[in-house]
């Protein structure tokens, strides 16, 4: 279930400030898509987003959700139909994870059993084991786990609309990449209407079905698909935002599952003894083998000269990862990127030539 959101000539003036923070903002956010507002600090992204759930009241203009006038609804009722996730998760510190996730269902008067079931379902959905996490307090979670709980809470009452304000802004780059991947996976299933605010253009390219590049006072400089903005920035300001390496950035638009994986490479098992490993490598004429455990999950690299020494795999990608992540992994590993499937099992390798071919193809397409 998703809703179209329409803002028409929406303006916000804060008391005592001359220029409006948001000036005559008009946009249609299609149902079931992720629209990213991206722009420099202070341009009005947050103000614009918060007017949709009326945490900030517009000074003038019209906002409709599925054709219904959001400004004439009771604000509390409106907010119960709109999930909201923010930076640093904004969890209630004295409530457990379960209580945090169950807040809106509770307010909606769901019976207890239904709330508890829903909380567990949501924790599962965001990759947290309910048995382990439901009774913890926010301070007992890592930043990434708090962010996941924040997303679970925003989704708990199954709202058709989700507003996300820099939700992954406060975590390290690797966790951030994982959270982004998870949001993509969730969205493939849930198809909500999501408005996502960030100042990180790469994040916008990765997540957005459409991106609104905003200038001061939330002026829309360009509103289009990531592909179109990368290929044809509307003006110099947008071009500046897109930054250098547009064709490399397009790698964030392609996923590992879009390319053919190499099956080459020597696979050995944790059961194999060093002699066997060396023999396999010599027979194949290769110097490195990938070692898998009993469930076919990658464990380490081993080299023909020291087959008894396990060398760590420093970076891996999944089927859902972007080709930019794959390129990172290739550069980190100095060879190929190891790809794993849904249960962490080995599914193949991305080779540098594959990535190069895609970059060439993207350049030609957009020339
Ligand atoms: N409560 C307020 N009272 C007065 N001015 C405000 C208020 N909130 C925001 N502003 C001003 O409105 C403008 C837009 O702020 P807003 O927070 O929407 O920008 P933003 O693009 O989300 O910024 P950031 O990326 O830094 O969070 C800024 O100039 C800010 O100083």
TrEMBL record:
Residues 5-242 form the ABC transporter domain. Keywords: ATP-binding, Nucleotide-binding, Transport. It comes from the Bacteria. Coiled coil: none annotated. InterPro entries: AAA+_ATPase, ABC_transporter-like_ATP-bd, ABC_transporter-like_CS, P-loop_NTPase. Signal peptide: none annotated. It holds the Pfam family ABC_tran. The keyword Ligase does not apply. The keyword Transport applies. GO terms for molecular function: ATP binding. PANTHER family: OSMOPROTECTANT IMPORT ATP-BINDING PROTEIN OSMV. Belongs to the ABC transporter superfamily. This is Osmoprotectant transport system ATP-binding protein. It comes from Kibdelosporangium banguiense.
